[in-house]
Amino acid sequence: MEIFTTMRSLQAILVIFLMFLPFHTLNASTLDDIRSRGQLICGVNAGLSGFAEKGASDQWRGFDVDFCRAVSTAIFSDPLKITFVPLTAEERFDALKAGKVDLLSRNSTWTMTRDINLELEFVGVIYYDGQGFMVRKAQGLISALELGGVKICLISGTTTDPNVRAYFKAQKIETEIIAFNSRAELLVAYDAGKCDAYASDRSALAADRVKLKNPDELIILPEVISKEPLGPVVLEGDSQWVDLVRWTLFALINAEEIGWTSDHEKNSKAENGPEREALTKAAIAVAQKLNLKDDWVADVIGKVGNYSEVFDKNLGEGSPLRLSRGLNALWNKGGILYAPPMR
Question: What is the CATH number assigned to the segment(s) 30-128+230-333?
Fold first, then answer.
């Protein structure tokens, strides 16, 4: 009798213990769930030119969108097996934690507070950015130090708000901060003249400038007031999924470095070169642990392109945003972008 009583007590303790385990540890792996579903669910910006937006044919496009396509290709050998979920800045992390998306590819800044307190995993930096200010040329301003007494609009739930307040406090400049819940609301207010300046990541300012009335009459001031390393985000606790997303990102960057592109006609040097051979062998060596096909990297580069191709198409100087690579140039071409070796 005492044995049965003890066993029942142990079972009760086990049940209580399991109740308090994180939900995702009680289920199949993220990759298993995605494969079973037949779709990757990717959280993206609700509408940011060059990064994530719906085109005329109702198809999603953009820099962050293409990263989702790269991950989908690694999993399914198909860049189109994705459901895109548009999320506001305030919704994004809660949606990820609630399991509404598998991956957040949505211009999100990697910070210690978010990384640790929210129990999230930033897999790497996909875009090095910094916050700044956009104003109208007619205002005659050439520096953020001239923004005293003006109304500055920004989006709530982002790192912009505390960074802007800290910047002007340090400069002993009085301003009026107006926060909006969504980018759409802010842009309407800016066009209506309710804002004298718009503060955000400089990439976002460039993206939104093309949506505003008379974009040629708007300028981005030279000051960069913060560090904004933007990167894809997943939940902690599934190391296989973290590794898969992380090394898909690093594959894009490493492929650019060795000249491996989606254009087979331009791949003569990379095709049989020692760098590509080493990268391919390394990808095959880990494919089983990642539960991917041996040629997963070749699939990703062939169907989505390397980092340079994705950047140039969506953000580069030939795109409506006309952004230079800047800090996002490779480390051996004047920037700070590089990925850990894959071999």
Answer: 3.40.190.10
